[in-house]
Design brief:
The chain is mostly helical. Helices cover about 80% and strands about 0% of the residues. It folds into two domains: about 200 residues, Growth Hormone, Chain: A (Up-down Bundle); about 200 residues, Growth Hormone, Chain: A. The radius of gyration is 21 Å and the shape is globular.
Length: about 425
């Protein structure tokens, strides 16, 4: 067997590389990793305001243009399966730089795409490259921190990540207002170059040579071994169900506030920004409370509040109040606890792994995208004027997340006593 992290006995004695940096470099390091975790929303949200212009310019229809979003999500999901094992075998920095180069080239290619089908293909590879930022930022956090320190660090990354849904559409709208949709992709290409330069000079490889897999095939086998690691897999699924509920919110909330309650697009964007900001606050709060309350209790409380919010949303969907305030409160309480549950839950999930952080982080990310892809289409089953499918998806997500989390914790504890 290769030189994998098959034992976690050194978790409590980890010394973070960032502790050796100056205060300015430490902040820059956190910002870089935070921007890497934001590849998902950046690749999608900044692009949304340009969809009508792309539809007209490339002489296509809205449903076909939507495929460019779908292909990007597929790339973000599938890429994590590949990048994780590669980083366990060859370290974090090399795959990170390669991902950023591919992201930059595909972004430039999207700007030059002659038709919609070329754009769809390039968007897949752009998402595939962006997945490297998602996997590797989480893996590097696990390399550097453990326990409550990992929770606090992930809270900082979550804070930066939560800003992307706020500023992404704003940046996209501004670029569209001053130029064509092509400028969006040139902006993303420039963003890739800046991250490449910052990562080259400011980011260290957090996985030492002696902790890497001897061969890539060992890293791939290790990833498959994680799929039969019951505590890890069940805890992963618990967090994935939370993401399923969040993706349901993303898919349905525009219709809830615009189609049902008559909000303008700008009004909805304000609500979306408020929720993103509250997610960030809850992530920071969970980071601060991690040592005092413990991560398991934070996740249980978060899932319980999400479950109550979902039940309230079912009641709201049935009585259909004229005011949007009850729906806003219920949805805000639900998505707010995403920040707390994901921040605290990530460290618990990763502590249950028996192999490399890269492979485990890849599985963690893929399952979240998979549940999101499966649940988000369900919210439209009764049409755009019904909130009931969204409420039921929220309820199922919170319920299964809580049940699986409790079960995963029990299996994790029993495996330690054997």
């Amino acid at each position: 067997m290769g030189k994998t992290e098959n034992t976690l006995s050194d978790q409590t004695t980890k010394v973070a590389l960032v502790d050796t940096l100056s205060k300015t470099d430490k902040i820059l390091y956190i910002v870089i990793l935070g921007m890497l975790t934001a590849f998902g929303p950046i690749c999608t949200d900044i692009y949304l305001p340009a969809l009508p212009a792309i539809t007209q310019d490339l002489l296509t229809d809205p449903s076909t243009v939507q495929l460019s979003l779908t292909s990007s999500f597929l790339g973000l999901a599938i890429g994590q399966i590949f990048v994780g094992p590669i980083s366990d075998a060859y370290g974090r920095k090399g795959p990170l730089l390669a991902s950023l180069i591919l992201f930059t080239l595909t972004s430039a290619g999207c700007a030059l795409a002659p038709n919609i089908w070329v754009l769809i293909v390039l968007r897949f590879f752009q998402g595939f490259a962006g997945s490297g930022g998602l996997v590797l930022s989480r893996s590097m956090a696990c390399d550097m921190f453990s326990a409550d320190k990992l929770t606090r660090f992930m809270a900082m990354l979550m804070t930066i990540n939560s800003l992307a849904p706020i500023f992404g559409p704003i940046i996209g709208s501004f670029i569209i207002s001053v130029g064509s949709w092509h400028l969006l992709f040139w902006f993303l290409a420039l963003w890739g170059v800046m991250l490449f330069l910052a990562s080259t000079f400011k980011v260290q490889d957090t996985l030492s040579v002696e902790k890497r897999e001897a061969h890539l095939k060992e890293a791939i086998f290790d990833m498959f071994r994680q799929l039969v690691n019951k505590p890890f897999l069940i805890l992963c699924l618990s967090m994935a169900f939370i993401m399923g509920g969040f993706f349901s919110y993303l898919a349905a909330s525009p219709f809830v506030f615009q189609s049902i309650y008559g909000y303008s697009a700008f009004g909805y964007s304000i609500i979306f920004a408020i929720n993103a900001f509250i997610i960030s606050l809850c992530a920071q709060l969970s980071g601060r409370l991690s040592r005092r309350l413990g991560d398991p209790l934070i996740v249980k409380i978060s899932c319980s509040v999400m479950l109550l919010s979902a039940m309230a949303m079912i009641f709201i969907a049935l009585i259909k109040p004229q005011s949007s305030i009850p729906a806003f409160v219920a949805l805000t309480c639900f998505v707010a606890l995403l920040g707390a549950s994901q921040t605290s839950g990530f460290g618990i999930v990763m502590s249950a792994r028996t192999g490399g952080a890269g492979s485990a982080s890849g599985i963690f990310g893929v399952l979240g995208f998979l549940l999101g892809a499966l649940m988000s289409p369900l919210v439209g089953l009764l049409g755009e004027t019904s909130m009931l499918p969204l409420a039921l998806c929220m309820f199922i997500s919170a319920l299964f997340s809580y049940i699986l989390f409790v079960l995963g914790l029990k299996l994790k504890q029993s495996s330690k006593t054997k």
